[in-house]
């Protein structure tokens, strides 16, 4: 087998062939803290589970292969993954950050990283010129991009931005949670590190909280491996196993979710009570062409703004198929109210400026029958 | 090796592959084969699973038998043992066995012409009289549930050997930490591992241990054909529970003893059943075959309404079915463990409507006594 395997093939066999002793198809769950040594000075390759655990390693190697990266790392949550990556930076460093990013990442930058002397410079990363200017600011050491963004699904031109960052010697970190390696591979586009909330599409069943980092080069891998072990926010073996199990169906799930999302976005864009629809798969979306050139699909996240924001509570209460809940990427369709849920940590002036208004709702489209989903929205709209 | 040490290191105490100090959970249904003509030891997880196997090896070592087998529940274990028999075979069974055992014999195996005589196994002569030419096995439980009557294991094993019967014992109440019936000559030991072995009220599991490899093979065939196996997650949790069996049992037993003695002085309590009490009938026999009295205490209140009022008044014990967990559990045999035994039959066996059963957990004994005192009012 010399030709690289398709991602569907890699993922369907995630965790297989991990246990030559028994041939177990499914990777064993090593619910262990420690490993006995064969003799003084010898190791089986595993010593202590914070450092390395065979079940977590199966997940990490699967992630690295899917992303065509050098090495993968699994963390206790998406934020633990991002937090570990930020520890690469020294005090006094500045990071150019996508302005309308996930509220939790915003909180991490503002409430945690700032006190360690790391300053975020927020820019609209769909505006390449704005990023170029920001990267020239003194002390910029990193570019952190979320694309598509959450919740407005703005698209950054990844190859151009990555090249710009490289030009000023800044590390590029891409949060690829919304598209997954099945649709967008930032490392192939030159990014140094890709981060994930693996809670979302990668695991896909709303049953595990997990994060991941994949590094492009051995140098970055070494530094992340050091931090993962030193900081210690590792993913446990049970959750690693569940994440592996989820990865097996990622290509199928995403395909169905994306197909449903395309139909729903189109339907929403014709609805009289909907003011605007944000879905990069719609030809009129400003990032449509850029995303088409750097990704193989548009994902399954949609944001839309209703004409009358006063109707939002009734919509959230009235849905029967969509679940009114935070999170995204699972097989179940969720509806979220970004202004009070995912982005509650941003000041209202900032929210207004970003366009996260009181009438904005976000859909994470699941794998249900699309006619049922549309009927559900029709009833509440 | 001291028994407390064996509890930690029985069977496989580490993963041979990585040295992991905890046996991996093989959550897998099948195993890839290196050679299509000669299948490896593991081919399909109903037949063999490394996690389940680690538990099976551990319980075999702890009971001192040749083979251990893990099942989906205590009843799956017991029913699988009964599948050793054929239509027309006759079993002599202790009349005070667990209600579920009674139910499966009367309700299911009866219709397949398995004849059963229920006898008081405290009396070896009664057992001898019940043996017929078609009798194939003797099944006992000691201490019995819920009245904790004691059966003489050595006498039963001798009787069974004399008549060529398989001797089977349900060792759930004692666990191998306190009582090892195979050392007394028994052929098969069964467990609801849900109880003291698992010990945390967080899983359902059953175990069987066969003294000889031959009986072990027959039971293995049944386990694989009938398929009532224990899954890898529950096998792993049971193994985890067994590691603390010794320390749990010591502490629970100590509290149970204190509570039993205190209960005996309470005016609301008519009678206390606990093998650790000096005047418990069969105490001498019990301590000749077991090293402790375990942690189940039954006691009798005035009548049904008094028992129900008491069950409603307690705060610390969890009122419910089951026993052997780290949490104290208070049960009402009349509507719970022995509901499947007809009321007249229950009364005849001394299980009155005023009887309650306390499985003492790891809470502080003084807290438990204070709560029981409040509940008596």
Task: Give the helix/strand layout.
The complex is a heterodimer of chains A (381) and B (377).
Chain A: H1 7-12, H2 54-67, E1 71-75, H3 78-86, E2 94-98, H4 103-113, E3 119-123, H5 128-135, E4 140-146, H6 158-167, E5 171-175, H7 180-183, E6 193-197, E7 211-215, H8 218-231, H9 237-247, H10 250-269, E8 274-278, H11 288-294, E9 301-306, H12 312-318, E10 323-324, E11 334-336, H13 348-354, E12 360-364, H14 370-380
Parallel strand pairs in A: 2-3, 2-4, 4-5, 5-6, 10-11
Antiparallel strand pairs in A: 1-7, 6-7, 8-9, 9-12, 11-12
Chain B: H1 3-9, H2 50-63, E1 67-71, H3 74-82, E2 90-94, H4 99-108, E3 115-119, H5 124-130, E4 135-141, H6 153-162, E5 166-170, H7 175-178, E6 188-192, E7 206-210, H8 213-226, H9 232-243, H10 245-264, E8 271-273, H11 283-289, E9 296-300, H12 304-313, E10 318-319, E11 329-331, H13 343-348, E12 355-359, H14 365-376
Parallel strand pairs in B: 2-3, 2-4, 4-5, 5-6, 10-11
Antiparallel strand pairs in B: 1-7, 6-7, 8-9, 9-12, 11-12
Strand content of chain A: 15-25%
Which parts of chain B are unreliable, with pLDDT below 50 for 5 consecutive residues or more?
none
Which CATH class of the largest domain in chain A is shown? Alpha Beta
Order of helices and strands of chain A: HHEHEHEHEHEHEEHHHEHEHEEHEH
Helix content of chain B: 25-40%
Biggest β-sheet of chain B, characterized? 7 strands, mixed
Written as H for each helix and E for each strand, in order along the chain, the element string of chain B is HHEHEHEHEHEHEEHHHEHEHEEHEH
What fraction of residues of chain B sit in β-strands? 5-15%
Q: Main beta sheet of chain A, described?
A: 7 strands, mixed
Strand order of the largest sheet of chain A: 1-7-6-5-4-2-3
Query: How do the strands line up in the largest sheet of chain B?
Result: 1-7-6-5-4-2-3
Number of strands of chain B: 12
Number of domains of chain A: 2
Number of helical segments of chain B? 14
Name given to the CATH homologous superfamily of the largest domain in chain A = Type I PLP-dependent aspartate aminotransferase-like (Major domain)
The CATH topology name of the largest domain in chain A reads Aspartate Aminotransferase, domain 2
């Amino acid at each position: 087998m010399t030709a690289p395997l398709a991602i569907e093939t890699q993922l369907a066999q995630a965790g297989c062939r991990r246990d030559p002793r028994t041939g177990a198809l499914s990777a064993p769950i090593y619910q262990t803290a420690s490993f006995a040594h064969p003799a003084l000075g010898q190791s089986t390759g595993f010593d202590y589970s914070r450092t390395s655990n065979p079940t977590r390693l199966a997940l990490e190697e699967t992630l690295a292969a899917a992303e065509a990266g050098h090495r993968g790392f699994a963390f206790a949550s998406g934020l633990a993954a991002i937090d570990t990556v930020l520890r690469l930076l020294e005090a006094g460093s500045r990071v150019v950050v996508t302005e309308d990013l996930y509220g939790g990442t915003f909180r991490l930058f503002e409430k945690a990283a700032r006190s360690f002397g790391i300053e975020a410079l927020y820019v609209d990363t769909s505006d390449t010129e704005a990023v170029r200017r920001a990267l020239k600011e003194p002390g910029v050491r990193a570019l952190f991009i979320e694309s598509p963004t959450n919740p407005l699904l703005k698209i950054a031109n990844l190859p151009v931005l990555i090249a710009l960052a490289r030009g000023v010697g800044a590390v590029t970190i891409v949060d690829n949670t919304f598209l997954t390696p099945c649709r967008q591979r930032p490392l192939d586009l030159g990014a140094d590190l890709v981060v994930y909330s693996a809670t979302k599409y990668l695991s896909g069943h709303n049953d595990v909280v997990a994060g991941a980092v994949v590094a492009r080069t051995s140098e970055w891998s070494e530094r992340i491996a050091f931090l993962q072990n030193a900081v210690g926010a590792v993913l446990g073996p049970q959750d690693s196993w569940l994440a592996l199990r989820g990865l097996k169906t990622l290509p199928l799930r995403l395909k169905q979710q994306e197909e449903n999302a395309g139909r729903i976005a189109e339907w929403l864009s014709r609805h009289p009570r909907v003011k605007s629809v944000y879905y990069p798969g719609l030809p009129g979306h400003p990032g449509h062409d850029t995303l088409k050139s750097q990704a193989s699909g548009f994902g399954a996240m949609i944001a839309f703004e209703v004409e009358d924001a006063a109707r939002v509570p009734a919509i959230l209460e009235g849905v029967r198929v969509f679940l009114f809940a935070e999170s995204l990427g699972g097989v179940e369709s969720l509806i979220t109210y970004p202004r009070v849920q995912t982005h509650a940590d941003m000041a209202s002036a900032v929210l207004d400026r970003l366009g996260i208004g009181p009438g904005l709702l976000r859909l994470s489209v699941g794998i249900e029958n699309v006619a049922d989903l549309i009927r559900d929205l029709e009833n509440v709209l | 090796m001291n028994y407390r040490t064996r509890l930690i290191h029985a069977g496989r105490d580490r993963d041979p592959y990585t040295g992991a100090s905890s046996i991996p959970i093989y959550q897998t249904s099948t195993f890839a084969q290196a050679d299509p003509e000669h299948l490896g030891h593991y081919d399909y997880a109903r037949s063999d699973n490394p996690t389940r196997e680690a538990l099976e090896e551990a319980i075999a070592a702890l009971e001192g038998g040749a083979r251990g087998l893990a099942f989906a529940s205590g009843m799956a274990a017991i029913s699988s043992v009964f599948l050793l028999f054929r239509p027309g075979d006759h079993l002599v069974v202790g009349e005070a066995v667990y209600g579920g055992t009674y139910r499966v014999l009367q309700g299911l195996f009866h219709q397949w012409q398995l004849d059963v005589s229920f006898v008081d196994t405290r009396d070896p002569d009664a057992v001898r009289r019940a043996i017929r030419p078609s009798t194939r096995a003797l099944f006992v439980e000691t201490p019995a549930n819920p009245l904790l009557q004691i059966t003489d294991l050595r006498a039963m094993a001798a009787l069974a050997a004399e008549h060529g019967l398989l001797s089977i014992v349900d060792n759930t109440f004692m666990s191998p930490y306190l009582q090892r019936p195979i050392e007394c000559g028994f052929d098969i030991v069964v467990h609801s591992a849900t109880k003291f072995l698992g010990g945390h009220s967080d899983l359902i599991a059953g175990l069987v241990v066969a003294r000889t490899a031959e009986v072990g093979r027959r039971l293995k065939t049944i386990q694989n054909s009938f398929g009532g196996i224990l899954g890898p997650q529950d096998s792993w949790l049971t193994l985890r529970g067994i590691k603390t069996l010794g320390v749990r049992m010591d502490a629970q037993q100590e509290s149970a003893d204190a509570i039993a003695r205190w209960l005996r002085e309470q005016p609301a309590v008519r009678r206390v059943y606990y093998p650790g009490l000096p005047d418990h009938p069969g105490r001498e026999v019990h301590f000749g075959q077991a090293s402790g009295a375990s942690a189940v205490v039954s006691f009798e209140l005035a009548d049904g309404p008094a028992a129900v009022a008491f069950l409603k008044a307690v705060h610390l014990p969890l009122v419910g079915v089951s026993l052997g967990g780290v949490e104290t559990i208070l049960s009402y045999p009349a509507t719970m463990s022995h509901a499947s035994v007809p009321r007249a039959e229950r009364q005849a066996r001394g299980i009155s409507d005023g009887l309650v059963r306390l499985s003492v957990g790891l809470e502080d004994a003084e807290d438990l006594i204070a709560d029981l005192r409040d509940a008596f009012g």
